[in-house]
Each structure stands twice: as C-alpha cells, then as structure tokens.
Specification:
Length: 323
C-alpha cells in the first residue's frame, strides 16, 4: 500500500530553482483557495476560504521527514514550500522555516499564489524565507477572476498592496507571471490591455525580479493553451521597457542538471510521490529521481496497470499524473 501522506518530495527539476526539495504542508489532496484555469494539479475540488479550513501538517512532522531526506539527497539548490496546495494556508509556515534553517544551510523558498498576502501574519511567515516566488496572472480584477477563480472575498487590489508591503520586509521577492491563451479567446492575460494592466501592477509592487513564461504542463482546463513564442517575446520586451531588462527574465523550457547522488529507497513509491505533486514526462521523472529509463518503464507500466497514475497528452508530449 502506498503512503500518500509524505510531506517531503523530490528533488524536483525547476526552471527557476534548479534542484529543489519540496515540502508540502497542505496535502496530500489539492487544497487551495484558487481554482486556476492553468493549474497542473487539475481542478480544485476542495476550494477553501482561508487557514481556518485547512488541517495542515505540523512543524515537528516536517522536521522529522526533512532530517531523514537530507541524509539521502545532496547538491540541493533550494528547499521549497509548495506542493498540492497553497502553503500560506498553513499558519505554522514561519515557524517551520525558522526551524528548517536550524538544520540546513540550503536556502528556503516559498511559492505562493499571493492570495493571503494582505494578512500581516502571512507576510510575517513569508518574511522568514530567503526567496518568495509569488504568482500574479492579472493586473485587473476581471482577468484575475477569470484566470485564478479565487474563493469569495479575495481581491486583486489587496494582493497588490500585500505584495508591495512584503517587498520591503526582507526576503527576495520574485513575481512569476504565467501567460495563458485560450482556444475560445478567453480567458487570456496576453492581450495588449491585460499586459498593460499587469505592468502597472508590477510597477506598484516593485519586486526584485519578474519572470515571464507560459504553460508547459497539462492545464486544468483543456481550452487553455500556451502563448506563442513570438507573443511571449513581445510581452517580455514590453516588461523590459517598463522595468529594465535586468529585472525581467523570459523563460522557455530547459533544465539544469547536477548529479544529486540520490540514495533510493522504494523507487516505485518515489515515482508515485513525485507524480502526486507534479505531472511529469518520463524524461523529467528520470532526470529528477535519477532512475534509469529501463527501470522507469517497468515502474510506469505497473502504476498505470494498477490505475494509480494516468497518462495525459499535452501540447508538448506525454505526461503522467497520480490519480
Ligand atoms: S495553480 Fe496554484 S494557486 Fe492555482 S489552483 Fe493550482 S495550486 Fe492553487
């Protein structure tokens, strides 16, 4: 029987963070206060309104698992709080980061959807990290509602104010903007007007860096498609002009590789754990977990046969996701 409640996963390959060991303090099921049209984890079945609706894991549970993993995994670029839901929904986040820093020098990152950032306690928690990667897909309320589909009461204005306030509290703040297009014209944040609104919002926030990219994994809604390479370059140029080229990063696909020297336990469980948090191609699984292709084929066949994972065909290839 597979253990689905594992808190630590990966390391996962990250376009931004290199080799990142993930900490999931919300899972095992996707728990979020957004239901983004592009979400790689599928639809949000359980859309929560705030921390009071979440039974997250404790600091002690995180530390026990992390100590165990740090004995097996080397050459990490980051320890990242992310996973199957929004990590700021767990209000023990700040305490966890402080304690993680007592047992390792690996920098700590939090990836957040920014939804609770207007709360002082949430900003205090995030301020313990070395890096906060905050997603922002809209500079206007209408696009925000259409793309992020937030729980009621969450407003873009508050998010923008909260991000600006976090920016002066210490951690490096990077804003991640995923541009989406739609087979039905809408929703999209790649129109001229939506891009101008986004640039206006980012100017108010004044982050250390903005990253511009597009969909590269199977989205929750099958009408969502990536923005063309040409349009993405145009958008990045607009951001360059507004913010300075050194403050804007345009990302296409591509991964750095380092030899992690992973000591494997049960490879089948490790593959399953990764796919619970992140749909991956066979190549990405092999790269991340350092499992030979010949072994991986057998593991994937077994997991598919037992209906523990499914195969998803996306624009750029075949992905696997846990069910
Ligand atoms: S993309 Fe992130 S914020 Fe959006 S629904 Fe998925 S987990 Fe939640």
């Amino acid at each position: 029987m597979l253990k689905k409640q594992r808190i630590i996963y990966g390391p996962v390959p990250s376009r931004r963070l290199g080799r990142s060991l993930g900490i999931d303090i919300i899972g095992p099921e996707k728990t979020c206060n957004f239901d983004c049209v592009y979400c790689q984890l599928g639809h949000t079945d359980k859309k929560v309104s705030g921390p009071q609706d979440v039974c997250g894991v404790s600091t002690e549970e995180v530390l026990v698992e992390l100590k165990n993993h740090l004995k097996k995994v080397k050459h990490l670029d980051y320890i990242t709080f992310s996973g199957t839901g929004e990590p700021t929904l767990n209000l023990a986040l700040g305490d966890m980061i402080r304690n993680v820093k007592k047992i390792t020098n690996v920098p700590v990152c939090v990836i957040t959807n920014s939804s609770l950032i207007d709360r002082m306690d949430v900003r205090d928690n995030l301020a313990q990290a070395d890096l906060v990667v905050a997603t922002l897909e809209a500079g206007d309320e209408k696009t925000f509602m259409a793309i992020n589909r937030p729980a009621s009461g969450i407003r873009l204005d508050d998010i923008i104010k909260g991000l600006k306030a976090l920016g002066v509290m210490g951690p490096r703040l990077e804003i991640e903007i995923l541009f989406v297009d739609s087979k039905m014209d809408n929703p999209t944040n790649a129109s001229e007007q939506a891009v101008n609104e986004l640039i206006g919002a980012v100017k108010i926030i004044d982050p250390d860096m903005v990253e511009v990219f597009t969909v590269s994994r199977p989205p929750a809604e099958n009408f969502i498609i990536p923005v063309s390479r040409q349009r993405l370059i145009q958008i990045a140029q607009k951001f360059d002009e507004a913010l300075g080229r050194e403050n804007v990063r345009l990302v296409f696909k591509g991964l750095r590789r380092k030899n992690a020297g992973i000591k494997h336990g049960n490879k089948r469980n490790e593959v399953y754990d990764l796919l619970v948090r992140r749909p991956c191609t066979a190549d990405q699984i092999s790269f991340t977990l350092e499992i030979e292709n010949k072994d991986l084929v057998d593991i994937i066949d077994d997991l598919l046969g037992k209906k523990e994972i499914v195969e998803i065909t996306a624009e750029d290839g075949k992905y696997y996701r846990a069910v």
